[in-house]
Amino acid sequence: MLKVSKISKRDLILNSIIKAYLSDNSPIGSSELGSRMDVAMPASTIRVYFKKLADEGEITQLHISGGRIPTIVAMRRYWREIFDDFDFSMPTLEINDDLLLKNLCDRLELYCMIFGDFEQELVEILNVNDRFLLLNFSYDEIVLKYDIRVERFLQNLIGVGLDKLELVSAQVGLSELRAKIRELKRGKISFQENEILAFKMFDDERYKMILEPSFATKMSDGVNYEPVFNSDFMGLKLRVLHQGESSTMICAGSIYSDYVKFLNEIREAA
Question: Which GO terms describe its molecular function (predicted)?
Answer without folding.
Answer: DNA binding
